[in-house]
Amino acid sequence: MNKLSYQTLTADQPYQLVDIRQASQFRQAFVPGSINLTLNNFSNYAEGVLNRDEAIIWIIDQTDSSLIQTIEDISEGYSSIGFIEFAAFPSDMLQSVASIPAEDFLAINHTAYQLIDVRQQAEITRPAPKKNLLSIPLAQLKSQINQLNHEDKQYLLCGSGNRATTAASLLARAGMQPVVIEGGMKAVQACQSIQATISED
Fold first, then answer.
1. Where is each Rhodanese domain found (predicted)?
2. Stated pTM of the model
3. Statement to judge: residues 113 and 190 lie in one domain
4. Host domain of residue 138
5. What is the CATH number of the domain that holds 181?
6. pLDDT (tens digit per residue) in 143-164
7. Same-domain status, 14 and 88
8. From CA 17, how far away is CA 2, in angstroms rounded?
9. 190 and 125 co-located in one domain
10. pLDDT tens figures, 178-189
């Protein structure tokens, strides 16, 4: 696989940018239009998140021969153009993903938002807050983006924040302004438990 320059990116070439860096890194800074999909989640979610008819340009942290081999192995069936190291992109080209602590999310008192839980139904043992809740598993989100209210803010929830970041990259690509709930449902449940204890006191 070839190492590319960011100048390779042209609007008239059909490709998809797949950023395999960790979710926390992606939230801090990402290339507009890129999709965050870590290698650990690739086999489970690539089919629902990516387009098989578009070649991939990979965004990686730094060049590593074993990493490149792993990418080639797990992406069998997808066409790859090459990879670009994230550090090569100019800082003024980058954006960031908004996030919110679980405690602050639970304190929201207005209704102009949607809470999107991207966990699969079978794994939900800790139910998400019911207010304005939409349950859309990550693998189905891309096909349902047009059904979302683009005027409202979209808060994204998963187990820990990783899949919510992938979901945020899809919504940002569609021109929306998503917000990831930090720490996912684990953090939300912890805040709810504290609030319940305080209420009892």
1. 11-193
2. 0.92
3. yes
4. 99-199
5. 3.40.250.10
6. 999 999 988 999 999 998 899 9
7. yes
8. 15
9. yes
10. 999 999 999 999
